[in-house]
Amino acid sequence: MTPPKPAYDIDWIWSNTSNVHVTNHRDCFAPGNGSEVVGIDDVDLPTKSHPTRNSAAYRRIIPLKNILHVPSFFCNVFATSVLEGYSIELYHDGLIAGHIFSKPSGACVALIDFSVLYRVRLYSQSAKQTSLEKDSLYYFNARWSPDERAKWQAHQQRESIDQLEGLQPANNQQRPKTNDDLPLSKAEKKWLKDNYNGEFHFLQTHGLSIYKDEDRVEGRRILRAMMEDDSDDAPDHSGDERAVFTRGVHNTEVDSDEQGSQGSFERDLEENPASHAADYHFSGEQLEWVKHSYGHSLNFLMSYGLKFYDDEDCEEGVAIVQAFMSDDEE
Asked: How far apart are CA 49 and CA 25, in angstroms?
């Protein structure tokens, strides 16, 4: 379940020393879940992949498993030691303090800000927003003992066995399907087409494969959570530019009144999805020069043996372009 307000505005603080996710607000949990083992549940954390854009194209979901509900805690804890399938890079570039990447795809799924402590920015939140006191010092370390964790895992295993036994097919009847097993509706297909250019790119963005049934089921679960959020109070910026960050870079599609330019951009992406992956390293004038001379930034970088996903290579590419532009002005 996605955290509702006011739980939504409580900081999710990044911690590389904690071994468990923690929330101090019960409303983060779905109604009816976690009733047998009070205070433990799963949360779909709605995040964003672009520092300034809030359209649905930048919305991502990070599923957090086995979160402890601790009402007395001063914040929520985002524990990286139990976060499987993701990696975190911290740095300051003026807009953000770091990225969270999906390991399978290398795509950015969340941003990290720094105000009082490192914080995972949720979708529609601002960079400087924080629920912590800015003139206070904080120290915390959330630990779940191995014995207690083992008890919870044993409970989950028993629960799964009971559910499977209760769903055994009888008289050749098919096992009941969950909502996520249901195929995409027309409205869902349209949402995917409008925001991600289809299911394939949506799954790829979340590190999933369209060729694996279990990945498509997980994709439908994430999709339906995101569409449910769309009906809430999150701001609508459907006219924003679209982008998908990859490790250290992002693919950017800029809305333009010049249909020819937009068509060229889309054709580049169809031919090679990485064709504009390094665009954000360059200024607008530099990109115009690159487009005129090389078609797009990937062609330019490859012509000099530079990697589009390497920040240092991209910085070298920017320096080369600037040198050429300076020569042209002389």
From this structure: 25
